[in-house]
Amino acid sequence: MPSFDQIDPQCAVSPHSAHAVKWGGRIGRWIAVFGPGLVVMLADTDVGSIITAGQSGVQWGYRLLLLQVVLMPILYVVQELTVRLGIFTGRGHGELILYHFGKAWAWVSVTGLAVATLGALLTEFSGVAGVGEMYGVPRAESLALAAAALLIVVLTGSYRRVERAAMIIGLFEVAFFFVAYAAHPSAAAIGRGMVDIPLHDINYLYLVAANIGAVIMPWMVFYQQSAVADKKLGPQHFKIARLDTAVGAVVTQLIMAAVLVACAATIAPHNAGASLSTVGEMSGALTPFLGKTMGQLVFGLGVLGAGLVAAIVASLALAWGVGEVAGYKRSLELHPLRARWFYGIYAACVVAGAVLVGVWPNLVTLNIGVQVMNALLLPVVLGFLIALAVRALPEEYRLKGWYFWVVVAVAGVTTSLGVFGGVQGLGL
Fold it and tell me: Which one of 13, 96, 224, 278 is most buried, counting C-beta atoms within 10 A?
């Protein structure tokens, strides 16, 4: 086996990178380092997650609101490991699996990533198409515009520009806070609902599993670790990068909570049996209470932000992951002609997602299959992540002691409930 440095010398960590030298003072360093954690967390609140949060509010009122808070540290614990691995090895997730566990396991991991990415793109572009249809825009036109925008953002920019564009697009998700505010939720009802937890009800447990399953996705792990490596963050950036991840975990779960509160305050009291399986259905259910103009505009902006940033992150994650295993050049700092496979896979993901949503008559059955696959992939994804954190990191930054067992417990619970949700989705 070749030495570690022979796998890909282009990814070596530079102690003077991440553009930090261009900024003066502590705030400047924070701004220069911030990005990978916030972007991946904004992508985590994708269209499927929004629909899950909305359905939770409709069916159970505020009873699943406390779960959104509990999921904040779970998100942080998992994604913080990708920060450690990216900073202290300078390598992407797929590359570390290749080196430590061999080519076969590396391709198994990337194959799972490809399936998860396809499922994510179908969900995100379905959301984009749903927003377009609310305004009478034909599905083909809205999908073509979205795909073109995503290609332009990545093919014409450096990593820094892509990251900034993703953060700006993702900030449209803040619109959900306005939706929750306009719903005028009752503080007393929220308090009562958060402590009324019907753990004996199988339908409640199913939505608990669905919410947990929406937290950890394979493309999130691949993206953040590869982004940290591509941004060439070094050990001196570790504390700030962890803060970036923590802020992102809080923001994304607050967005989920906002969607849940809006639906619990408006739809649940009048139509607790409503099925919100699409963006159009959710928007249509909210507009009688928020007003048609505001409901469609604010909700539409939030969905577009969520769908587009998730499409960028998932597609880049696959392009990085395949490159790390196949060995082709992969960096947003390289010109598209110098990294043709990297940009080609990204473009293929975007175009394929848009085309499939445009021509597939019914995405429901396909989406169920993808969700089940995501759930079954959790043991592999989290297993490799923990194994690498024990094996690939410098001694002082490896998982060990009580924190090792905390991480194992978090991964075990998340995996168990994710698989439970997948099995329930199949009706087994």
Answer: 224
For residue 219, give the nearest of 303, 112, 124 by alpha carbon.
112
Overall pTM surpassing 0.70 (yes/no)? yes
Cα–Cα distance list, 404 to 86, 87, 285, 389, 409 (Å): 18, 19, 45, 9, 9
**Which residues constitute the domain of residue 205?**
14-426
- Of 259, 42, 307, 49, the residue nearest 167 (C-alpha): 42
Please state, in angstroms and rounded to a whole number, the distance separating the CA atoms of residues 259 and 293: 18
pLDDT tens digits for range 248-270: 899 999 999 998 998 888 877 76
Q: Positive or negative, the Cα torsion across 333, 335, 341, 343?
A: positive
> For residue range 93-111, what is the model confidence (pLDDT) as tens digits?
989 999 999 999 999 999 8
The CATH number given to whatever domain includes residue 335 is 1.20.1740.10
| Residue 34 DSSP one-character state | -
Tell whether 2 is covered by a domain.
no
d(CA 54, CA 148): 29
Residues 6+ apart with CB under 8 A from 263: 53, 54, 55, 56, 57, 58, 276, 282, 285, 286
**Do 73 and 215 contact (CB within 8 A), yes or no?**
no
Q: In a 10 Å sphere around its CB, with 0-12 CB exposed, 13-18 middle and 19+ buried, how is residue 150 labelled?
A: buried
What would the mean pLDDT of 192-205 be, rounded to a whole number?
82
